[in-house]
Design brief:
Layout (H helix, E strand, L loop, with lengths): L1 H4 L17 E5 L5 E3 L7 H7 L6 H41 L8 H4 L5 H69 L4 H93 L4 E8 L2 E7 L10 E5 L28
Parallel strand pairs: 1-5
Antiparallel strand pairs: 1-2, 3-4, 3-5
Helix pairs in contact: 3-5, 3-6, 5-6
Length: 343
């Protein structure tokens, strides 16, 4: 250094660490996470930095929040279940062409419940609107068909009239032609009758063309009536399949949510009671330290110093064997609407 810098005497050098690597605290503490290191820090001081041991009151507050959230989830799923059951009943009734919706017993038995009653009434309104719309479209197509059939009858009568007129004029033309050949009638009269026959035949051809067009329109109307029914049936069948899938999904989610809520309301408080007894014991401290040879876990005490980069693990002794006495069954005391999935 002296030669590199061209110094005449050996310099005085002081090294100061500006910033240490952080340390970490995990386990049964209030605020686990990463914290800045300072020299001389002990395990107990690190515990204080992390807010101390987590208290049972904090756990109970967390459990109470989880119960409220769980009850809300179950309630929302119950509402979805009611809505899907009512929709499924409406779609099945539409597919069957019924005059009214045949709601399942699990809804009719709870018809006094406001939520169930509202869901059923909404589906009744949708059912009525869709039925009226379908009836209106069918009525319009049938009225069109009736009009076309009336026009078809009229055209048939016109053709019969043209045939009759043509027959009469052709008879008259035959007589005039015979007289012209004998010199008893003039040729212009014959030509006039021939022109009349040609005009009548032309008019008949127009009527016949119109008749064919009307028959084609009647066939198209019949197809539209058939397609309208088939289209609605396909639409309702697809909606019914989708509704059933959603109903199965909601039922599965509800079963899971109810089980989680039961665990939170029944099992977790019992576990906390056991843990409360265990909290009276001395916490267990361990330090995970990384060295050149790798990571190692060290048993520590409150006064054990920690080093930069250490991970301090703090836990309490495991609860006694009383865990076997925890409740494993029971019903969740919460007001729910009917939850049921059907295939």
């Amino acid at each position: 250094l002296m030669q590199h810098m061209g110094l005449g005497r050996q310099p005085d050098v002081a090294v100061e660490i500006v910033q240490y690597r952080p340390f970490y605290i995990v386990g049964y503490v209030t605020q686990p996470g990463e914290f800045p290191f300072r020299p001389g820090l002990t395990v107990l001081q690190a515990l204080g930095i992390a807010g101390g041991l987590r208290t049972r009151e904090e756990d109970m507050s967390r459990l109470e929040r989880e119960v409220i959230v769980g009850q809300g989830d179950v309630g929302l799923l119950a509402l979805s279940n009611v809505s899907l059951l009512a929709r499924k009943a409406r779609l099945e009734s539409e597919l069957a062409g019924s005059d009214d919706i045949a709601f399942p017993a699990q809804l009719k038995d709870r018809a006094s419940n406001e939520t169930v009653a509202v869901a059923m009434e909404q589906e009744r309104k949708i059912f009525a609107v869709r039925k009226d719309a379908m009836a209106t479209q069918l009525r319009a197509l049938r009225e069109l068909k009736d009009f076309l059939e009336t026009e078809l009858t009229s055209l048939g009568q016109q053709m019969a009239f043209h045939d009759q007129q043509i027959e009469l004029i052709q008879k008259e033309l035959a007589g005039v032609s015979a007289l012209v050949q004998k010199g008893l009638a003039v040729a212009p009269r014959e030509l006039s009758l021939q022109g009349t026959v040609a005009q009548m035949q032309s008019d008949r051809l127009v009527a016949e063309t119109s008749l064919l067009r009307v028959r084609q329109e009647i066939s198209k109307t019949d197809i539209e009536i058939l397609n309208l029914g088939n289209s609605q049936a396909s639409e309702v069948a697809a909606a019914l399949r989708e509704t059933q899938l959603q109903l199965n999904e909601v039922t599965s989610k509800t079963n899971t949510a109810v089980q989680l809520l039961h665990d939170t309301e029944v099992t977790a408080p019992a576990l906390l009671a056991l843990r409360e007894r265990a909290e009276r014991a001395k916490p267990i401290f361990k330090i995970v330290r990384t060295t050149d040879s790798g990571s190692q876990e060290l048993t520590a005490e409150e006064t054990t110093p920690i080093e930069p980069g250490d991970t301090v693990k703090i836990d309490i002794p495991p609860p006694p064997s009383g865990l076997a006495a925890l409740p494993t069954g029971g019903s969740v005391q919460t007001e729910t609407l009917p939850i049921q999935g059907t295939n």
